[in-house]
Amino acid sequence: MLFLGVDGGGSKTAAMLVDENGRVIGWGLGGGSNYQSVGLNTMLNSVTTATTAALNGATPDAVGYCMAGADMPHDFGLLHGVIPAVAPNVPYTLRNDVIGIFRAGSRFPYGVGIVFGTGFNAGGIDKAGNEFRFPSLGSVTGDREHLTSYAIGAAFRAWDGRGEPTALTDAILKAFDAPDFETLAEWWVQNKLTNRSVRNLAPLVFEVCEAGDAVARRLIQNEGGELGIAANAVLRRLNLTHEDCDVVIGGSLSHGVGNVLMDTITEVVHECAPNAKVSRLDVPPVVGAVLLAADTIGFKTDSNFIAAIRATLPRELYVPSALTGEAS
Q1: Which of 35, 140, 243, 303 is most buried when burial is the number of CB atoms within 10 A of its CB?
Q2: What is the β-pairing status of strands 246-250 and 111-116?
Q3: How far apart are CA 318 and CA 29, in angstroms?
Q4: d(Cα 51, Cα 61) in Å, to the nearest integer?
Q5: 3: which strand partners?
Q6: What is the pLDDT of residue 171?
Q7: Average pLDDT over residues 98-113
Q8: Do residues 108 and 124 touch, judged by C-beta distance below 8 A?
């Protein structure tokens, strides 16, 4: 049997073909496939490019698609209208990419996943196969702003006297090569700074925290606390608070240096679910898409299957080891 997994992200699409023993026998990459930003046609072209390379003429027995932009019923309706054309007449499952992150790092087909990167999301699957996931639409659905928004805000507050001193002030001025905060504010008004350039400060916040800065440490602890609260909410909805299960953290910011983030998440989660194991995702999310494909047709994967995937994973598909990637 052959299982095809597709992880469709905002900047790239990865596809991977695995046999029934867990050996990776094909893979491919394509462009971004979040249809909300690139459109349905470009999304389909990116997915087709990646899957054509992965399949190399083979026909899979099941496909798992984990797609950024698959958020609301409207999104799923549109995607279900075009995705089957990629591998016609083949059983498939279509999930949000946070479900792929959970499945890639979980020991079981049930558990929780968290995206912590360019965006945020949380969701999971219960022991009966039912899914729960946040809408993740930003502040309108109660989600926090990006970590770096709080960091640059803390630096400005330290400069103008509203906040306590922090090493973030000098570090942020240096990062932007700005002489002072008046200039930095002027650059923002003139659109010389972008949301992307602000978000690119993320590694700096972790580094300043590790150097002993109390403000940066508190910012990361706040993020960890919020991620722990999100995980607990999903665990309760899925009736997993008393189960041995996994809470998997993925996305670029989960790879920040130091242990403050993960230690905080773990502490908060264990207050609600003492048997849950909290971990960073250490394999490409496309692994989760493959496992979901196998789940779809009732194929039982085990530790040997997952070990074989890990042993044969192409280096080109591996997640970044630093804060360099994107997550939806």
Answers
A1: 35
A2: parallel
A3: 12
A4: 14
A5: 18, 62
A6: 97
A7: 95
A8: no
